Amino acid sequence: MTIYGTALLSACLICGLFIGKSLGRLCGLQVDLGGVGIAMVLLMVVTGWLKKKQLLNSKTEAGITYWSAIYIPIVVAMAAGLNVRGAIRGGPAALLAGVLAVAACFALVPVISRWGKP
Amino acid sequence: MNVLDQDLSVMNPTLADGCSLLVAFAVVGATVWISYVLSAKLTRGRVHGSAIAILFGLAFAYWGGVATGGENGIVDIRFFAGFGLMGGAMLRDLAIVATAYGVRVEELRKAGISGLVSVLLGVLTSFVIGAVVAYVFGYRDAISMATIGGGAATYIVGTVTGTSLGASSEVIALSVATGLIKSILVMIVTPAVAKSIGLDNPRSALIFGGLMGTTSGVAGGLVATDAKLVPYGALTSTFYTGAGCLLGPSLVYFLIRWIV
């Protein structure tokens, strides 16, 4: 059943967010510390285990892959909800800080990629 | 939206009331379709269809902001309110997690340490740059510098840092604007520079996500570069905001206060 996949996916996200928020609270912050990342690892581990036990059929899979396929449209909708006008009105300080931060981080990608390459 | 408009829209419900999410699905679907046609016909596939679609999304957001004076882009226009649900944190996170399905666990292990290093280096680099720019523009107290530095990480880091240190709302707004500019730039620039920074394999995508940190920017940028790389970048970038919120109001603030 397709809903099994979606249910599994949702359960992983709920657990991940719960763990992330609990970690945040432990550190004295009202934020989520990597909840989505934890959920991703959970999903990989749980589906890997189910596959090994051959409990994951193609219909269940479809309940997960649909959401991963709808990802681009969701990002488009997200972009349409950003405060773009506010960002442009933030003025030269915001613009300069944003541009420099992005440029520096782009430049660091090949540096770290080379560093510690197996 | 002013008060009068609000009253009018309550009296005259639009067609979209009760099916706002469906309007969002239909409009986004049409936008994506047009974008892929433009990508194939106008740029011969050189600019990825999803990059064009995201640009359309940002243009909608600007239009929504100008039309209503609100802060939520097109979502503030009543007819398009469903974009808020479709592109909101809940479905976005669900889709991000779903992309992890099929990720090879050994790829993650290989990048373990460099992933961690990239997150820490990404957060600190952004804080330093943001704080220096803030200083240059005359925001010379440690609280403002840390807050604007946080914005150069992500706007959530900026808001959390500013709120917990008690920064002025002007500085927090500037910090949020910095974070937004960063995420928009990452979305637009990534596909263009991907080749020259070697962003074509899971390992560099993990590092990229950790360095950039803006979940929306990384997601949009990677989807337009190579959708297969999304889960790797998304995974590290989700730890970035947490790390920034942890370091900003503490270590970074004390360091800045000690230097200035």
Walk me through what this model shows.
The complex is a heterodimer of chains A (118) and B (260). With 118 residues, chain A is mainly alpha-helical. Chain A has a domain at 2-82. Chain A is 81% helix and 0% strand. Chain A has six helices and no strands. Chain A has helices at 2-26, 35-52, 58-69, 71-80, 84-89, 91-114. In chain A, helix 1 crosses helix 2 (35-52) and helix 1 (2-26) crosses helix 3. Chain B is mostly helical and 260 residues long. Chain B has two domains: 3-89, no CATH class; 105-259, no CATH class. Helices cover 77% and strands 0% of the residues of chain B. Chain B is built from 13 helices and no strands. In chain B, helix 8 (142-153) runs parallel beside helix 10 and helix 9 (155-165) runs parallel beside helix 13. The model of chain B has no long low-confidence stretch (mean pLDDT 84). The chains are: A mainly alpha (118), B mainly alpha (260). Chains A and B meet through helix 1, helix 2, helix 3, helix 4 and helix 5 of A and helix 2, helix 3, helix 4, helix 5 and helix 6 of B. Chain A: InterPro entries: Maln_transptMadL. Chain A: Keywords: Membrane, Transmembrane, Transmembrane helix.
